């Protein structure tokens, strides 16, 4: 590992002092969130007493429970244990949440997820992976490479990675790999020495009113990387040049990396692998190509990233995928078509957010029209209020308008029953950032 600068040594010492002051008892509201659950495991591994709550059970809450972290499946004010010194909340949890209100009454310090992550990671050598697409897979691949190389990384990943059976990997206390989201400028809460930018495309339209606003956040993140740090990216990629202009860190072009043939589909995953390999070399130049190749060949992939679920009773193949942006949908469908040319592709799509759906309605329609057929679930509102100006029926109509075949259905039960009619000539993908994956679990044997 390259020698830390004097400034980084001072920051590390300051962080040790600061972290020792963090209360031992920590409560986490929205603990089942993918980032929150990983942070909970990290704090637990560091000897903190961690508990939390969430609205419903999920694979992440089950994972936490299996590791001895108590999770309440509701969010009543009485959940906060006596003696709690810090409440960490998911960004999806509003100030009106009863636990947050109770914390204020009791004078308990509050931090958002990314604020807490920034505090915890402050003195660690941090590799932050950001970008519009591919963050999770790149973070998982990078973690796998450094683990295979014996570098003992600590990692927080945006999905459960099958190689680690978790979204967290415990490692040394001086090297952290973290998936960093641009939404609400969360990436700016971190102080990475290595910043990986996979690609940049307009997204999170409820926060970024324009592409320029999004680019400015990435530009600020890039300019925070110190002069002895590294920015790993594709300098020729769309919108990247504007982000890099004036940055003081060394620029590494990940497209120059050679990677083996992967088990993951699509050229986009090869790009993710190149980014991971370049990031690994930037922090450990001594890593051998054979180690990188072995790690990438062994990488099993992540939950909800074109994850094979099984077959329906009539023999249709079932996959689940997290794609929720038109570009990700289009590239996934193109890769599936290339790998399974004899299958009829049926997508059960769960649009995420009214704002994103409205902003990219026509783009969603063109992408989904590449499937042989799509079934559109009601929009997953998440943090947004109902917006009657956009709906699953409107999405289906737009798909029809560009020559696709689509059906809007108003419940998961209806979607499940429709998919169970498909035979072995079909390949089904449940797709989106909501909980459409539950349908895949129901129909696959």
Mean pLDDT: 92
The separation of the N and C termini measures 47 Å
CATH class of the largest domain: Alpha Beta
Q: What percent of the residues sit in helical stretches (DSSP H or I)?
A: 25-40%
DSSP, total strands: 18
The largest sheet has its strands arranged as: 8-7-9-6-10-11-12
CATH superfamily of the largest domain: Mur-like, catalytic domain
Number of domain modules: 3
User: Helical element count?
Assistant: 16
Main sheet properties: 7 strands, mixed
Second-tier CATH architecture of the largest domain: 3-Layer(aba) Sandwich
Uncertain runs: 1-20
Structural class label: alpha/beta
Shape type: globular
- Note the beta-strand portion: 15-25%
Q: Find the CATH topology of the largest domain.
A: UDP-N-acetylmuramoyl-L-alanine:D-glutamate ligase
What's the gyration radius in Å?
22 Å
Q: Explain this structure to me?
A:
This protein is globular. The protein has a seven-stranded mixed beta sheet with strand order 8-7-9-6-10-11-12, sandwiched between helices. It contains 16 helices and 18 strands. It folds into three domains: 113 residues, 3-Layer(aba) Sandwich (Rossmann fold); 175 residues, 3-Layer(aba) Sandwich (UDP-N-acetylmuramoyl-L-alanine:D-glutamate ligase), CATH 3.40.1190.10; 137 residues, Protein-Tyrosine Phosphatase, Chain A. It is α/β, with parallel strands linked by helices. Helix 13 packs across helix 14 and helix 15 packs across helix 16.
């Amino acid at each position: 590992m390259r020698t830390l600068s004097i400034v980084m040594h001072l920051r590390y010492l300051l962080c040790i002092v600061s972290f020792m002051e963090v209360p031992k008892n920590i409560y986490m509201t929205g603990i089942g969130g993918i980032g929150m659950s990983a942070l909970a495991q990290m704090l637990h591994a560091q000897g903190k007493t961690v508990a939390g709550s969430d609205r419903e059970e999920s694979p992440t809450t089950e994972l936490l429970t299996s590791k001895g972290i108590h999770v309440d499946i509701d969010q009543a004010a009485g959940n906060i244990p006596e003696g709690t010194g810090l409440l960490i909340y998911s960004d999806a949890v509003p100030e009106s949440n009863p636990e947050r209100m109770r914390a204020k009454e009791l004078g308990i310090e509050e931090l958002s997820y990314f604020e807490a992550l920034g505090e915890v990671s402050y003195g660690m050598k941090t590799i932050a992976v950001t970008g519009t697409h591919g963050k999770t897979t790149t973070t998982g691949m990078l973690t796998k490479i450094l683990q295979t190389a014996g570098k003992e990384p600590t990692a927080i990943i945006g999905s459960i990675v099958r190689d680690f059976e978790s979204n967290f990997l415990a490692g040394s206390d001086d090297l952290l790999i973290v998936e960093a989201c641009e939404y609400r400028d969360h990436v700016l809460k971190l102080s990475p020495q290595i910043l990986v930018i996979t690609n940049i495309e307009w997204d999170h339209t409820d926060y970024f009113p324009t592409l320029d606003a999004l680019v400015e956040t990435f530009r600020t993140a890039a300019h925070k990387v110190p002069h002895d740090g590294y920015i790993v990216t594709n300098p020729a990629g769309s919108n990247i040049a504007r982000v890099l202009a004036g940055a003081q860190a060394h620029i590494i072009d990940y497209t120059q990396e050679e990677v083996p043939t992967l088990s993951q589909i699509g050229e986009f995953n090869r790009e993710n692998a190149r980014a991971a390999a370049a990031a690994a070399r930037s922090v450990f130049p001594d890593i051998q190509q054979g180690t990188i190749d072995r790690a990438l060949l062994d990488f099993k992939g992540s939950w909800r990233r074109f994850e094979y679920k099984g077959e329906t009773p009539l023999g249709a193949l079932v996959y689940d995928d997290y794609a929720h942006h038109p570009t990700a949908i289009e590239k996934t469908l193109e890769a599936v078509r290339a790998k399974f040319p004899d299958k009829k592709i049926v997508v059960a799509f769960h649009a995420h957010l009214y704002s994103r759906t409205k902003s990219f309605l026509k783009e969603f329609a063109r992408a989904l029209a590449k499937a042989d057929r799509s079934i559109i679930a009601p929009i997953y509102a998440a943090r947004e209020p109902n917006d009657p100006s956009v709906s699953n029926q409107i999405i289906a109509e737009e798909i029809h308008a560009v020559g696709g075949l689509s059906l809007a259905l108003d419940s998961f039960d209806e979607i499940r029953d429709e998919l169970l009619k498909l035979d072995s000539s079909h390949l089904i993908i449940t797709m989106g950032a909501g909980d459409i994956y539950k349908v895949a679990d129901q129909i696959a044997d």
